[in-house]
Specification:
Length: 358
């Protein structure tokens, strides 16, 4: 069995996440290719697609959400994700039982399944006439904890105008069955799609890593792994890696351009540690209790090298780039050019745009 080095896994992950070169794929194809995008913060989907696609404008994602070609809801790891409307029924079915078990276990003593089931029935009845905001739903479900349970245990979507760049608070809801139609997919079908999406977007990977990403027990993914025609490798620890046939495996020496990532980009999470995108000494700088939305980051040579933010005045937008360590001149030049494009995308109505490397 061939052994893949961390550097090879790094380049593989970057290629599959469309971060080695911007992709000509359509927006919906890209969302599916990378396994969906985590959108705890609504800006994440927009910046995440901008950095991955050759052609992407802010209005593209907003319109896809309005047209119901893409949707946002509580899915993998009981967190908000952006997926295609075609993938949603399978993702929802594949994660639903595990979402329910995890949420009830975590909230034991604070809310029961009966509480959530009763609230879900009331919410479903109220939402039958169309989407409602959280405030409009309070007469039916007044407890925030129980409402979070409805989102975790049932198929609820966050729909426009909320959860968009223009209105970032994702607080307008619809039942998925009303927004997209009845969901008939089975858990088994959903788990198979989840494993395929993980390997296509993050592979080669361990089964346990795929389970961590999906938020399901590894044993639930085992039948899908046995059913699919997968190729197998080993990592440098001798652990088995699964992969889809003919999925890209770039050479370890493949150049990786500077890229800006949004908050909560999934390549920084624990399930992708094998690719060494985020050095462990830098992890506490990104994910802390003081930054519940995490922070925006940038990559140099395929690894997180610092963070970025946009400072805006009435007329001027400035992209502040803050490296964790001293950068080589070539990287600074790349970041300057890429940053100028980012700040213009981020603040299109500003009269002046600048990039400052701290």
């Amino acid at each position: 069995m061939k052994t893949l080095t961390a550097r090879e896994l790094n380049r593989s992950l970057l290629a599959r996440q469309l971060l080695l070169e911007r992709s000509p794929k359509s927006m919906i194809q890209a969302i599916e290719a990378v396994g969906g995008l985590q959108t705890q913060n609504a800006t994440g989907g927009y910046v995440g697609l901008w950095t991955r696609l050759k052609k992407f404008e802010m209005v593209d994602l907003t319109k896809a959400l309005e047209d119901r070609r893409a949707v946002q809801g509580t899915m993998m790891r009981i967190t908000i994700h952006l997926v295609s409307a075609g993938d949603y029924p399978l993702v929802a079915a594949g994660t639903r039982p595990s979402r329910r078990a995890a949420w009830l276990r975590y909230h034991q003593g604070r809310a029961t399944e009966a509480d959530v089931k009763k609230a879900a029935a009331a919410a479903k009845k109220a939402l039958a006439n169309g989407p409602l905001s959280r405030n409009e739903l309070k007469p039916f479900v007044d407890s925030s904890t129980v409402w979070n349970g409805v989102n975790a245990l049932y198929d609820v979507l966050r729909v426009p105008p909320s959860g968009t760049w223009e209105r970032r608070r994702a607080d307008v809801y619809a039942m998925a069955s009303d927004w997209l139609g009845p969901i008939t997919a089975t858990e088994e079908e959903g788990l198979e799609l989840l494993l395929k999406r993980y390997l296509a977007g993050f592979g080669p990977g361990r089964l346990a890593d795929a389970a961590s990403w999906a938020g399901v027990p590894a044993r639930k993914l085992q039948p899908a792994a046995e059913k699919l025609n997968l190729r197998r490798f080993e990592d440098e620890e001798g652990k088995e890696l699964l992969d889809l046939p003919r999925a890209p495996l770039p050479d370890a020496k493949t150049p990786a351009p500077a890229r800006f990532l949004p908050v909560w980009d999934a390549i920084l999470l624990a399930h992708a540690r094998r690719a060494e995108i985020l050095a462990e000494e830098h992890r506490p700088l990104i994910f802390t209790t003081k930054t519940p939305q995490s922070v925006n980051t940038f990559l140099v040579d395929g690894a997180v090298a610092g963070k970025w933010s946009v400072k805006r005045t009435a007329r001027k937008a400035e992209l502040l780039v803050e490296p964790f360590e001293k950068l080589p001149a070539k990287a600074k030049k790349e970041l300057q050019a890429e940053g100028e494009r980012l700040v213009r995308f981020h603040e299109p109505d500003a009269e002046a745009h600048t990039v400052r490397l701290a």
